[in-house]
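Attaching the record inline, Q. Sequence:
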Amino acid sequence: MFNALIRTHHITSRKKVTKLKQAADATQVFAMLRSGSSPGIMYVEGEEKGVRHWVDTVHNLRYKDYQLVARPAAIQHENQPTKDSEVRPGLYETETVSDFGKQLQDRGVYAWWRKAMGYAKDE
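Structure, as predicted:
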């Protein structure tokens, strides 16, 4: 399994979100967005080919301040993901950074996310 993380200025266009949902469904990846206001955050997880394709789709949508802060790579879990976090393909949205972080904590990649976002320093 692979994952990637993208940061943008914001995610507000419902048209673009629809395209991201279609791409998540087509590539059978789990994708999560922090939408509404700044910052826009996108997390994707799945098979390598699907993750790379989904990241390319986001790039092609030309989001303002697009940054691929964690390139597609094999997932490095820092703890066991909870049962609730099983990969279920599709696109999911959250409105707060704290909820986004909580969901990544449940997936076992919280420290990886904090480091990629610049919230935590290398230890």
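The helical segments are 14-27, 48-60, 97-106, 110-117. Residues 14-27 form the longest helix (14 residues).

More tomorrow.
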